[in-house]
Structures are given as C-alpha cells and as structure tokens.
What we know:
This protein has eleven helices and eight strands. A hairpin with a 2-residue loop joins strand 4 (about 70) and strand 5. The chain has four domains: about 20-95, no CATH class; about 110-135; about 140-200, no CATH class; about 215-310, no CATH class. Helix 5 (about 205-215) crosses helix 8 (about 260-275), helix 6 (about 220-235) crosses helix 8 and helix 6 (about 220-235) packs across helix 11. It has helices at about 45-55, 110-135, 155-170, 180-195, 205-215, 220-235, 240-250, 260-275, 275-285, 285-290, 300-310; strands at about 25, 35, 45, 70, 70-75, 140-145, 175-180, 200. By secondary structure, the chain is mostly helical. Helices cover about 45% and strands about 10% of the residues.
Amino acid sequence: MSPREEFPTKGLEDAPSNDIGWHFGTPVPNAKGNIVCKLCGKVVKGGITRFKEHIGHKTGNVAPCPNVTEGRSSYGSSIPTESEFTLRGAIPELVRSKSSKQPKLPTPYEVSDVYLESEYQRVRHWVNRLKTYWKELGATLMCDDISSVPSRDAEFYYSLLDSVVEEIGENYIVQIVTDNEAAMKAAGKKLILKRKHLYWTSCAAHCLDLCLKDIGKRPSVANLLDEAKKVTCFIYNHTWTVDLMKKYTQGKQILRPALTRFATHFIQLEEITRQKQGLREMFNSKEYKESKWGQQKSGPTYEAKKIVLGKDF
C-alpha cells in the first residue's frame, strides 16, 4: 500500500494537530482528551484516536456516530478512506467506514523506512519549490520549542539556528523568529552578533499569549474564566445538554479552538457572551427543569445553572 503524496490538512489551521480526524471534531477546552463530534454532538473521551473509532464505526470502545453510514456523513461530508490516514500518526484501522474491510496495518519496517522516506522526499520537494523564491523575496527562519530534546540551552539553539542558516545560505535569510523563552532569546542575539545583517524577532503570537496569560492571573479575570470553564465543562460533558444548548442557540457552539491555549479561554468567554440569551433560555426551559440535571441541588450541574441564571452573568 503506497502512502499518499498529499495529506489533507486544509481547514485544520486551528486544530491541535494536522490529524485528519480533527475535520470532524472540536476539542473541549480545559478537558484534556475530550472531543465534541461535529456530526452528532457526542462528547468522546480518550483523545483523537478514540474519537476516530467513533467516526470510523470501530466498535468496542466507543459508540459509533449515528450520522455516518457507508463512508459518508448524513451532512454530506466524505469520511476519509484508509489510504488517507496512512501518514502522520493516523491509524487506518480506526478510520474505516462501516462497509470497508479490515485493513492491514503497516509493518514497523514500512513505517520507519518506506513511509518515512516517502514523507521526507515529499517535504524535500516542497522545500525545493520554495527555494526558487528565496533569491527574490528572502526567507524567514522560524524556530519553535523542541520538547523532545532534554537539554535545550542557549548553546543548543544557537548551534541549531547557525547550522540551518549555513545550510540555506546566509544571503537568503532576512530574519529569525523564535518564541520568548530565555534560551531562544539568548541564541537569537548571539547569532545576530555573528551574522551582522540578520534580525532577530520575537514571535508575536507567543507575546500575545503571554499577555493573555498575565491578564488571566488577575483575580477578577481568573474568577470569570473559572466560571466559564464550569459552564462549558458541564454542557460538553453530556450529549443531551449539548443538543439542548444548540436548540436554544440556533445551532451555535460556545467552543472555538484557537491557536494558543490562553487565546482559547478568552474566545470561549466571547462566545458565551454572544449566546448569553440562548443559554439562559436553555436553563429556564421545561426540558431542562424536568431532566435529571435540572432537579439537582448541588454539584457541577447546579453550579453551572447558578452562574448562567445569576444577575452578574
């Protein structure tokens, strides 16, 4: 089975990873491993692998999505085939349609040799196409945190950046962008001392994320974020409450994943504010009051209701 040359990542810019499973699910903020199915609204616990079992109708660990049959959702979107899940951590067994045969998983040799080499050649071909623009437009070298390396000091990052500049060609590099970690800042400043025409720039997204983190530490803001978390966690921990919420918000969600962790928290606040009236109507509805959650007088359910129906909401 030959690997795909192109991996379908369009539309996954705001997802936690390029795993194609995120086409069909949205992560629940502040609830690690919980994913809301975009097709049926069910909250699946266990991460993206378990969620793909839900989409792919692999029985045993999770209930199958009722809106997926014969490799296509009832909303018209195609469910990826086995070949579309070969690379980048997507397991074919977990994403097959209801009618397909049990696929054969790749061997360790195929993963480490055949598929890895194929992916390397694909990326290399992509980089070679970019090189044609470097002489005219220049290039920006961006470096993210490398958590898999145990000792990531300034000297490590300096050596890494310097070797990449040498490989690409110093004349093509215009600037270097890193996050604001102390080791990276030191490495960037050391590099521009050696290579005089380079500029070091801190990552704007990381700066904004740190600003939001500090804002979120203020007692009044922290309390507000905590209340939003209680409301969101209660609603998205139960399929029935998700469906009821969508009934009163005209199908709108109160979750919108962002590129950074702290941005997600504040965007979540914005969405809750937009759906304020719908959330109030939900908790005041006859369906909710007669449900098992509406009759509880304590616990997370009661806390969420008290927050939404409170005068300060």
